[in-house]
Amino acid sequence: MTTCVRSATAAVGLTAALSSAVCLQAGAAPAQQPDAAAIIHRVDAAAQYRYDNVLGFTDVEHYAIYRGNDETHPAAEMTVKSTYRKGSGKTYEILSQKGSQFLIRIGLRPLLDNERDINLPGKVAQSWFTSANYEMGLKSPATERMNGRECYVLGITAKHKAPNMIDGTLWVDAQNGMIVRVDGIASKSPSAFSGAPHLMRDYMDLEGFPEATHAHAESKSMFFGRTVVTIDYSQYHLELGQNGR
Length: 245
Fold this sequence. Notes:
Number of strands: 11
Distance between the termini: 78 Å
Order of helices and strands: HHEEEHEEEEEEEE
CATH architecture: Clam
CATH class: Mainly Beta
Mean pLDDT: 86
Oligomer: single chain
Radius of gyration: 26 Å
Strand content: 35-45%
Number of helices: 3
Low-confidence stretches: 1-30
CATH topology: outer membrane lipoprotein receptor (LolB), chain A
């Protein structure tokens, strides 16, 4: 009899303890959800901060074109020194080039011309990854590790269609809103004879500012088939304003 009572008492105690734990868990404050508007505001602020404080920079950029399924042997290559000056835009000095002169002429030189154009005063802000140029929405309340950094992941849709505008995904640093990676499809094809290319670009934190490290673009054309263009960026030198970190 005593054993039965003790067993029953233990069972009641265990049930009470479990009930209390369930009640405590149910009554606990839910984890705070990230504020999507605040995250997007940080993205906008990071882009503006870079523009306000980076007065200029130089870097070395290596361009390579690959044809078909061969991404080991470039069909054409070009290495350039890029110089940006706030208020005047970008200029390029070609350091070396080799491979198909045809691909250099129709593939790489137009890329440089396009970069010059979108960095002209009055145009440069139109290609920023900001809410002024993109519809943005948080894909998940959880952060995701990208390139060694904790990031929020945003879905982006270009508000105006252009070959350099992307519909896809933006990874931004969870702490400061700086861009870490962008990946998606160009919102407009650069040619009526090819589909819109798939574009990806990675960024690093350099002296407190996002700077590109690697880009990859893949397109398919009825005339030229599959083409991949890669760009690797190195040897940055930044000229910062007084408020630059």
